[in-house]
Specification:
Elements lengths: L2 H17 L15 H15 L3 E7 L3 H7 L5 E6 L3 E3 L2 E3 L8 E10 L12 H6 L1 E10 L12 H6 L6 E4 L15 E6 L2 E7 L7 H13 L10 E6 L4 E2 L5 E5 L5 E6 L2
Parallel strand pairs: 1-10, 3-7, 4-13
Antiparallel strand pairs: 1-2, 5-6, 5-10, 5-11, 6-7, 8-9, 8-12, 12-13
Helix pairs in contact: 1-2
């Protein structure tokens, strides 16, 4: 895709984000035709946003999420500085329109994982991790029918990134046990979803390795200090104004948000 067209597409998406007025789809002449062009538009939109990138989110790492968005593989989006909140968080009404939350394992890197021709093994990316945090993602789309636009446009839409709420760093955790870690999501005190780390590409650490290698193909490395949110480990939960949502990760910690009424 020509750089000018990528930037024009990105401008439309950023305007939709700022106005909270989603569009049906990108115009034919500005629509990314493949995954690579989707990331090109995403990078242009992040440039327009003019905010520091503080990490990455991985979308559709579970079968349930892939079915929800009608895609057949994971994708990535950038996490912008002003999109990260600390738990407990109150989310102002109208901030997001999608109305779903996802419980996720989030890693903070302690050292760089630079792009390289040879892929990273899971053990290598684990060694680069400095912290594990429980998280709730509130995704949002700049498209009215986000289930129909396809992977390339969802990637252009910054991987449907919006808000990421982080709990405190886990005091103790074992990378080998994350796939077995049970997570429950409750809304107003009632359990609505549960799952384990195995729902995230089989293991949250495998999801981190996937992101590292996927970005490396484009010459993009991951940096020390970045937060990597690895995708929903339980079914997504539909929420509405006034709801109090808690994601409980057992000994790892918990995250709490309240949606403004």
């Amino acid at each position: 895709m020509e750089a000018a067209k990528a930037r024009e597409a990105a401008s439309l998406l950023w305007a939709a984000f700022r106005s909270r007025k989603p569009i049906r789809a990108l115009p034919d002449g500005l629509r990314p035709r493949n995954i690579s062009e989707g990331y090109q538009v995403q990078e242009a939109m992040v440039g327009i946003a003019d905010q520091p990138v503080v990490g990455w989110k991985i979308g559709c790492t579970s079968e349930h999420a892939q079915e929800l968005l009608n895609v057949d593989a994971p994708f990535a989006g950038r996490v912008l500085a002003n999109s990260v909140l600390a738990s407990p968080a109150r989310i102002k009404e109208g901030t997001v329109t999608m109305g779903i939350v996802e419980a996720e394992f989030a890693f903070r890197l302690a050292r760089d994982l630079p792009a390289r021709p040879r892929g990273y093994a899971i053990e290598e990316v684990i060694e680069a991790v400095g912290e594990l945090r429980p998280a709730i993602e509130l995704p949002d789309s700049r498209f009215t029918d986000w289930q129909a636009v396809g992977a390339a446009q969802l990637i252009a839409d910054n991987g449907v990134a919006a808000l990421l709420v982080l709990g405190a760093p886990a005091a103790h955790w074992d990378a080998k046990q994350l796939r077995h870690q049970r997570v429950t999501v409750s809304v107003n005190g009632s359990s609505m979803a549960e799952g384990t780390g195995a729902n995230v590409l089989g293991d949250p650490c495998r999801a981190l390795a996937w992101l590292t290698n996927e970005m490396s193909k484009s010459g993009i490395g991951l940096k020390a200090g970045e937060i990597i949110s690895t995708g929903s480990c339980a079914d997504v939960v539909h929420v509405s104004a006034g709801d109090r949502i808690v994601a409980d990760f057992g000994a790892i910690g918990r995250v709490e948000i309240t949606l403004g009424a």
